Amino acid sequence: MSLDALLQNYARLLIRTGCALRPGQEVLLTAPVEAAGFARMVAQEAWEAGASAVTVEWVDDVISRLKYLHAPQSAFEKVPDWLTVQRNGVAERGGVILSLDGDDPDGMAGIDPSLFTAWARAVHRDCKAFYDGMDLGRNVWCIAGAATPKWAQKVFPGLPENEAVERLWQAILSTARADGPDPAGAWADHSAAFRRRTQLLNARQFDALHYTAANGTDFTVGLNQNHVWAGGGAETVDGTWFFPNMPTEEIFTSPHRDRAHGIVHSALPLNYNGGLIEDFWVKFEGGAAVDCGAAKGLELLKSILAEDEGAQNLGEVALVPHASPIAQSGILFYSTLYDENAACHLALGKGFPECVQGGLEMDEGALRDHHINLSATHVDFMIGTADLNITGILPDGTEVPVFRAGNWAGEFA
Ligand code: ZN
Question: Which residues contact residue 46 at a Cβ distance below 8 angstroms, ignoring those fewer than 6 apart?
């Protein structure tokens, strides 16, 4: 199949499987200007699936960078009215939100990180209906990759631009299981495997997970009563099954905020705000990071931990087999969407309401009472090595293998 034909299939997969678009729904599509050709394919698929409107928010890394370099502080503290109306309106009308991610990994290098924090705070406040729609299961949303020249040349340095972009598209298609003749069928199988494992984990209700690896990782994290493992896809409150991330390989939950102890060593570098943290470790006691070290980027790591009160505690525990296509590709994508699906990981910061039973109906106080970590930040870091063992510990102390040598083990295999 030609690359164009594969891309058309990929566009259809995003609209029909990722967004599960129903006739009459609106689509809000965010797309990089450098991937305009692919964005047009997606728009065509959306109309063919019966969309009632297709609105595109174009992203231009260069224009964005200029704003961060020159705009006054006040520009990051208030969202323009039109953007608030556009985003909240689509969410309130039950639209689907599809974002094509092709960010230049270095596009924001050297920008004052406090501006990102200010903007994140402003959009979450001013576009509350939009974020609540996604966070509380009212709206379908999907993030997927689209190759752009700057990103491609970061991932494949030294290749001519055209070749790098084509290589990146191939990597995007294969990791999204969209490189064969029947991507929708491949996702049906993938989804069934997710359902089996999440159901098993939810039935087991482990009290804790114990991680060990030869790099020195020896770490135990407590899980909440009535915790929920999620992954693969998600369901809206009105019962639409969709895929928030394509690709997706992780099964995740939010751990007990105050029950992590031991040391975890990184398995992959962490790309954060344009800087790289390499070969690092974090030591936890009583749920909080109490010490850390890094071969490179230690100050950046410390700045993550200092972001707010919850930034030292964990909000996510995710299980990703080493046999997954992203891990097997061996590519560092410099993109969370891909790299967080490359290995087992933890996240510092915000936990997920859907990871405790009834959590989507809880306010912040109730989530806190259920030991879900609250924070404005959420930073994933990879700890899954090829030799990682994870053992589930039942409330009565019984140990059950979950991962052995980097992959699902026992009843989970
Ligand atoms: Zn994750």
Answer: 15, 21, 27, 29, 54
Question: Are 365 and 218 found together in one domain?
Answer: yes
Question: For residue 49, how far is its CA from the centre of ligand 1 (angstroms)?
Answer: 30
State whether 133 and 224 are in the same domain: no
Q: Is 188 inside any structural domain?
A: no
For residue 155, what are the CA distances in angstroms to 43, 151, 162? 27, 6, 13
| Distance in Å, CA 1 to ligand 1 centroid | 32
Are 227 and 135 contained in the same domain? Answer: no
Alpha helices in 49-144 (DSSP H): 61-70, 81-92, 113-126, 128-135
Q: How far is the CA of 262 from the centre of ligand 1 (A)?
A: 20
In a domain, 182, yes or no: no
Q: How far is the CA of 75 from the centre of ligand 1 (A)?
A: 31
| 69 and 137 both lie in a single domain | yes
200, two tokens: 């098993």
Would you write out the chain's pLDDT as a tens digit for each of its 413 residues?
899 999 999 999 999 999 999 999 999 999 999 999 999 999 999 999 999 999 999 999 999 999 999 999 999 999 999 999 999 999 999 999 999 999 999 898 889 888 988 998 999 999 999 999 998 899 999 999 999 999 999 999 999 999 999 999 999 999 999 999 999 999 999 999 999 999 999 999 999 999 999 999 999 999 999 999 999 999 999 999 999 999 999 999 999 999 999 999 999 989 887 788 999 999 999 999 999 999 999 999 999 999 889 999 999 999 999 999 999 999 989 898 998 899 999 999 999 998 999 998 899 999 999 999 999 889 999 999 999 999 999 999 999 999 999 999 999 99
Q: How far is the CA of 123 from the centre of ligand 1 (A)?
A: 22
